[in-house]
Amino acid sequence: MTDLLFARSQMAISLGFHIVFACIGMTMPFFMAMSHWKWLKTKDEVYLKLTKAWAKGVAILFATGAVSGTMLSFELGLLWPKFMEHAGPIFGMPFSLEGTAFFLEAICLGIYLYGWNRFPPYVHWFCGLLVGLSGVASGIFVVAANAWMNSPTGFDWVNGQAINVDPIKAMFNDAWFTQALHMILAAFVATAFGVAGVHAFFLRKNPNSSFHQKALGIVIWFAVISALLQPISGDLSAKDIAKRQPAKLAAAEALFETQTSAPLLIGGIPDEKNKTVRYGLEIPGALSLLVHGNFKDEVIGLDQIPEDEQPPVAVVHYAFQIMVGIGIFLFLIACYFLFSRWVLKRQEFSSLLLRLLVIAAPLGFVAVQAGWVVTEVGRQPWIIYGILKTKDSLTPMPGLIYPFILTTSVYVFLAVIVSWLMIRQFKAVAGEFKS
Questions:
Q1: Which structural domain range is residue 120 located in?
Q2: Residue from 301, 265, 308 nearest 284 by CA
Q3: Is 100 helix (H, G, I), strand (E, B) or coil?
Q4: pLDDT for 268-288, tens place per residue?
């Protein structure tokens, strides 16, 4: 049991570290391409400087994401050999396509970084746009593989073996679209609010900086649009999970008993031993409405799930509440911005908005981490839902505490180096573009 805990913790740390850079790699090139487009159209040198500043950030974070992603791929084979034995031939296609998209992303980024004044302007710009497009494609393929773990299809499971494998059906499983949509939007929300928060911070210190005004003017729209769309994606995901993984939804809502007119729980402290929730606010019938579209239909609770197949309720519930709470907060910031811009006719960024953006800067990434906790921990004890349990996929190699310590040390080292590089980049930007 100890080795299982270390193996799962190692994967959690690896995924938690990598997902930050994956989100930035998917989305920040679009900010860079938009700034570059504005420079091509206006010839305003501020946009050129902004494009090159963002490109440096993309390069630093892309390199780190490549390292952490490579480590994750090795860990899958080393820690979970039984999983890869069964899953490899089935969902190998999206991983192969992800690799292709990653190489395209790397090639285009190299061309973009070193292609200034060497290519026709719009060809060069298009290479930058391809960095973002291939990054999004890479993310979709990876999420499709993870979605297969939540909704395994494309094979027949006979006597503990997968036969009649259909890799196309496996890749386009029932969960891939809702998971991919939710993840891509979450990446835009997290990265856009993160970048907006950085420029809002510098703009508060220097309100007349045209550099930070133009930067915030670009990224705020990515933040607003994605934050407004994310609740729709979340609703689709909740409805999908209610059908395919009722245990995950029940754990997220701490719904211990199957109910008609099931209430939506806000907050609360789950007591798994006594199967109750303390201090929570219940909205009668709201969960039935979200899942079924009416206030009366039944929602499956944990009482219909065998105890040895129930996920840890408290962990999933708290992570779900954090994700939803942050999503609502960022949604309200987006609404406030649109109200100020369209109703109050304010073209400048108000002091209140700048303060909110600074506060919101890290929250999108916190929500992403919480969302992955819901996805991964909520699937437990299954590594392939309904087919193969996590404990049965663990490597027989003893002493997993040692790779756990080594991997964690590598990520701590990378975090320190990246933080130092990014702080130096922020200081350079602040010093160079004071007006």
A1: 2-244+348-432
A2: 265
A3: helix
A4: 888 888 888 888 888 888 888
